Each structure stands twice: as structure tokens, then as C-alpha cells.
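Quick one: U3 small nucleolar ribonucleoprotein protein IMP3 from Gigaspora rosea, C-alpha cells please.
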Amino acid sequence: MVRKLKYHEQKLLKKFDFLQWKNEDNIREIKIIRRYHLQKREDYHKYNKLCGLIKKLANKISLLDPRDPFRSKQETALLDKLYSMGLITAKKQFSQLDKITVSAFCRLPIMMCRLKMTETVKEVVTFIEQGHIRVGPETITDPAYLVTRNLEDFVTWVDTSKIKRKIMKYNDKVCLISDI
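--- reply ---
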């Protein structure tokens, strides 16, 4: 038998509906957070909101008259912008904007794995948080940093990184002071 709830317990429970949780179907969200090792759930929600805004903008542009020069100008501008950000793979089709997902925003860890700088995404996230990675002249400590296509070639190790020194020593490219 269940005891009767006290007054303050009843007041608290009025705010909650235990039968309908709003975060009940978040399996895909958890998979993406684990796969790309997103540090904060808010990052996922921000990326998801951005994806929704991009899709909404693409939908509004597609509702314009196909022969309108303004529509074609806006299509190319949006495709160029998203391509330069690295969110889409080609500037060809406007219909590919409906398929943008959160994983398109998680570029830095995946790019570093493709460059064979590390083996796993988890290692990349650890190295970024420890300050071993730089993009261009600045050191990156946030794994959610968005690397544009212009900066892809400038992802490298920090000069003072012990990992870089270890790699150079392994490849016999570093001259130690004790060797002289």
C-alpha cells in the first residue's frame, strides 16, 4: 500500500508528468554526442538548431519563382557560404541542404583522424583539450571549434607539444641537444 503524499509533495509533483517525458526519444542525440565526443549537450542542441535554420532558409528560397534572378543569386550565395564553412561537400545541388545534419558541424576531430594525426576521435578530443592542436596561428582548446575549408591545411601540432616532439624524434627529424 502506498502512503498518502504530503501537501508539499503534491505541489511538487503537479509540475511533472511522469508518463510523457520530453526527452524520451533522444537515442540519436546520444549516439551523435558519443560518436563525436561532444563535451556539452548544449553544443548538440545549438548545431541542431542551426541545421533547422539552414533547412528553413533553403525552404523559403525554394518557394521563390525558379526563374527569378534573386532566387538564383541567393541559392549560390548560400551554397558558397556553406561550402566555405565545410558543411556541404559540393556547391552543385541546392537540394542537398535538406540533408545537413549535426555531424557536419563536428569537423575538426574527424578531419584530424583522416589526416592520420590520431587513431580515434577520443584521442583527438583529449589532445585538443590539452592544447596540443593549433589551427593557423592560434591554439585550440575547444573540440567544437569549426574549421573552415580555408583553414583545413593549417591544422597542425603546437610547436611546444611533446607529441609533436615525439613524432619528430620517431621520424629522425629532430636534433636533440645531447646529440651534438
